[in-house]
Amino acid sequence: MKVFVTGATGWIGSAAVDELLSAGHEVVGLARSDVSASALEAKGASALRGDLDDLDSLRRGAAEAEGVVHLANKHDWANPAESNRAERTAVATLAEALAGTGRPLVVANGLSGLVQGQPALETDPSPDVGPDSHRGGAENLALDYVGRGVRTVIARFAPTVHGVGDWGFVNFLMSAARKQGVSGYIGDGTHAWSAVHRSDAARLIRLGLESAPAGSRLHAIGEEAISTRAIAEVIGRALHIPVVSIAPEEANAHFGFVGRFFSLSMTGSSERTRELLAWAPAGPTLMDDIMAGAYKKGGER
Question: Which intervals hold domain NAD-dependent epimerase/dehydratase (predicted)?
Answer without folding.
Answer: 3-211
